Amino acid sequence: MITIDRVTRTFDGAVRALDDVSIHVRRGEVFGVVGQSGAGKSTLLRTVNALERPDSGTVTVDGVEVTALQGRRLLEARHRIGMVFQHFNLVSNRTAVENIEFALEAVGRPRSAKRDEALEMLDLVGLAHRADAYPGELSGGQRQRVGIARALASKPDVLLSDEATSALDPDTTRQILALIRRLSRDLGLTVLLITHEMDVVKQVCDSAALLEQGRVVEQGPLLDLVRTKGSRLAHDLFPLGEAPELPGYGVLDLTFAGGEAERPTIAMLARDLGIDVSILGATIETIAGEQAGRTRLAIPGEPGVVERAARFLGEQGVGVEVVSRP
């Protein structure tokens, strides 16, 4: 649905915000781009609707090369791409429904249909009862719901989210992410969101890319990344902290995804190899509709025991990292 192919963007002739970036977002998925401030996330997002023009490379949305468009054709393409902002960007002297009507004007909807369509969008985000409230009378979460409704006014195929939850409290963040997830599913929306928070990726994304200093470090479906040995995204999704030093013990970090998370693998290890296993830490979440997580084990005995345990677990389909040996 969205293909970003070898995109480079440089500012002031020296600062390379994007450096040969390639990302593919499948139709109907929620794709997160995660990275710290200055990584190039916002610049990347803005190339998708051509608010930023790359120095090289192409951006294609639903088979249309956006980077090649100008004038009216570019405006028409932008109408198929909704945008949700971090700080809502609502017009303060217009009510919630009027903010959406204003967006409908921009895409040429007839005056007679604007009110009904705007109310329909507010109902979609659960805010029809606050249609006549001004932004200053709404909570942060409600203002963001208006922002999402406004972004959906043009019936887009793609929704771009620019740190849409970073100004919200944790409970409101969960509600907004659940809303985005539901809209993606019910409307068939393809969602590309940027964030610096791994919890956002964990809660809502199907796939993700890690961006650092303008370059993609790794990317892919979350469940595939969880299964990938040494994945930094998987490690950050399930942090276990520093491994303790335990004389006489080796330490293994295990990564589970999908069916592996539901099997009694650790019990099988203890039974089949006769090892007295200690669990030092564990975290399990639901990722892309399936259970996934990490567990840290302490394995007593000689180094060879640790290697046998790691080999056994790998044969069960579990990702294994030997953190330390006795």
Helix proportion of residues, in percent?
25-40%
Largest sheet: 6 strands, mixed
Count, helices: 11
- Structural class per helix/strand content? alpha/beta
Shape, per Cα inertia axes: elongated
Indicate how many domains the architecture comprises.
2
Sheet with most strands: strand arrangement: 6-7-8-3-9-10
CATH class of the largest domain: Alpha Beta
Tell me the series of helices and strands, N- to C-terminal: EEEHEEHEHHHEHEHEEHHEHEEHE
Query: N-to-C terminal Cα separation, in Å?
Result: 50 Å
Radius of gyration (CA) equals 23 Å
Domain ABC transporter: 2-238
GO cellular component, one term: plasma membrane
Keywords: Amino-acid transport, ATP-binding, Cell membrane, Membrane, Nucleotide-binding, Translocase, Transport
Family: Belongs to the ABC transporter superfamily.
List keywords for this structure.
11 helices, four-stranded antiparallel beta sheet, 2 domains, alpha/beta, Alpha-Beta Plaits, Rossmann fold, 326 residues, elongated
